[in-house]
Amino acid sequence: LLISTTWILGCMVSVPDALLVKYEIPPGDKHPQCYKETRGMKGSLEMVYDMFVLTVQYVAPVLVMGYSYGMIALTIWRKTESGLVQSSQSTIRKNQMIKSKQKVIKMLIVIVTVYTICYFPINIGWLLLGSLASLPPATVG
Questions:
Q1: What mean pLDDT is predicted for residues 133-139?
Q2: What's this model's pTM, rounded to 2 decimal places?
Q3: What are the strands, taking DSSP E only, across the chain?
């Protein structure tokens, strides 16, 4: 159910782009370009759509990943070993477990950080490109 809902929402979010993005070779140019045809869309409506896409495709995943991985890290960190035997072997094992937990938590932090850093520029770039009225329609060539 969750996977189906994710696919349906992903398709619904992409419908406006599928309808508005055009791929053409401009007159006098050899290189094809993709651009968003927004003549029928008012500026504020386009900005609302761009903010919605930013929220759905960037902000929400970052928040969900941060929360989910935070809860996983908290659960891992709080988990204690069973057994009350105190010996040098158990102390060594306990130190190894603490180091392993730290490595897993660092990895979870790295995953969220890398996703956030890698996808931030493109999402903000498209938002800025779409909101700057002084530029012609957003082109990528």
A1: 47
A2: 0.66
A3: 21-24, 33-36, 139-140
